[in-house]
Amino acid sequence: MKSDHKLPAPNRREFLGNSAGLLLGGVLGSSLLAAGESSAAFRAANMPQPSSASPRRIIIDTDPGVDDAFAILLALSSPELKVEAITPVSGNVPLELTLPNALRLVEIAGRTDIPVAAGASVPLTRRLITASYVHGEDGLGGVNFPPPKTKPVTETATEIIRRIVRAHPGEVTIVAVGPLTNIATALRSDSELASMIPNLVLMGGSISGGNITPAAEFNFYVDPEAAYVVFHSGIPIVMVGLDVTRKVQLRDDDAAALEAGANPVSKAAGRIARSTIAQYRRTGFPGFPMMHDPLALATLLDPTLVKLKDFYVNIEIEGELTAGESVAYDHAPVRHSAPLESGGTLDGRNADEPFHTNTKVAVDVDADRFMRLLVGRLTNRAS
Ligand code: BDR
Ligand code: CA
């Protein structure tokens, strides 16, 4: 027995599965990771799919957030969707603001029947990073809407996600457009839950560089461990990341069209748009507000807006400079490049495991058609 040599470094799966991995292993939930990854094909073949005639049930997990607000208003203006719940999380601004912002938005849309359930106030293991420099101190571009009268439901985000998914197994699509803390917490709390979720459409990640660091997109950077749990859950994922959302921007003429709309949703969206554009100009923030989150939502309304490509996506959770990076493989990694001490595996994957994909990544978008859909739905909405 070697006594004076370092023990071989465990690969990530061994580390996470090892009780000595303590905090991180506990946070990520190794049994979930192993079970989830192998069950996707079985589930895809076996879960009932919602009938195309009835609206699709969705839960919106969100951190409103200017573009989150547009995503919520778009969903609430789309008869193809049945929004079962909205679950705010800390992200763009803290939960103390994202929660009332979500309540304000359901009030504006006249949909206070939709439950809004408070989610996580901090990421799984990290300090919260916010983005009020983009979204304004209030999270809605500095409009400062009046306080909402509606209250959140008493269930937590995790509880309501579990209850609704379990009530309609195989029918509820999760639309996650903030840091993935709530979704990861729900999955960790119920090992069967992932197998009941037919798909998860998320705004997050990038395969062409980040926006908060050169490597990472904001949502994944805020809670990389949560993103890791989700990408290893076995839930079929559609990743609408910066590769396409950078191309969809809200300009002055869009703001004017929204302001001219004759319903409260359009007028509120116009105020948020105008105020956010003005904030960008005042602070010297470059460009126009990007409509990241509504693009993710819109893929449920018109899948032809984006071009999807299959990848195996993993999330960097250890890199000091690259935390939250989404690393996408379109073919099996070259085994020989694995560090020797990892036992011949790369990226925590079993070297004998056949290559599989876990994510459809949006790689191209018809930006003009999407913006027409977004502005058109909000302005033409019946009051
Ligand atoms: C994502 O981060 C947030 O700032 C936006 O709401 C969007 O979900 C873009 O990186
Ligand atoms: Ca968001």
How would you characterize this protein structure?
- It is a single chain.
- By secondary structure, the protein is an alpha/beta fold.
- It has one domain (57-378): Inosine-uridine Nucleoside N-ribohydrolase, Chain A (Alpha-Beta Complex).
- Helices cover 38% and strands 13% of the residues.
- It contains 15 helices and eight strands.
- An eight-stranded mixed beta sheet has the order 2-1-3-4-5-8-6-7, with helices on both faces.
- The longest helix has 20 residues, at 264-283.
- Residues 1-25 and 30-51 have low confidence and may be disordered.
- The structure holds beta-D-ribofuranose (BDR) and calcium ion (CA).
- Beta-D-ribofuranose binds next to α4, α9 and α14.
List key phrases describing it.
38% helix, 15 helices, globular, 383 residues, 8-stranded mixed β-sheet, binds beta-D-ribofuranose, Inosine-uridine Nucleoside N-ribohydrolase, Chain A, binds calcium ion, alpha/beta
In short:
By secondary structure, the protein is an alpha/beta fold.
Helix- and strand-based class? alpha/beta
CATH topology: Inosine-uridine Nucleoside N-ribohydrolase, Chain A
Q: Report the portion of residues in β strands.
A: 5-15%
Give a quick account of the main beta sheet: strands, pairing sense, barrel closure.
8 strands, mixed
Q: Spell out the helices and strands N to C.
A: HHHEHEHHHEHEHHEHHHHEEEH
Shape: globular
Strand order of the largest sheet: 2-1-3-4-5-8-6-7
How many DSSP helices?
15
The CATH first-level class comes to Alpha Beta
- The name of the CATH superfamily reads Ribonucleoside hydrolase-like
**From the 3D coordinates, which CATH architecture would you assign?**
Alpha-Beta Complex
Q: Report the mean per-residue pLDDT as an integer.
A: 86
Low-confidence stretches: 1-25, 30-51
User: Using DSSP, what is the number of strands?
Assistant: 8
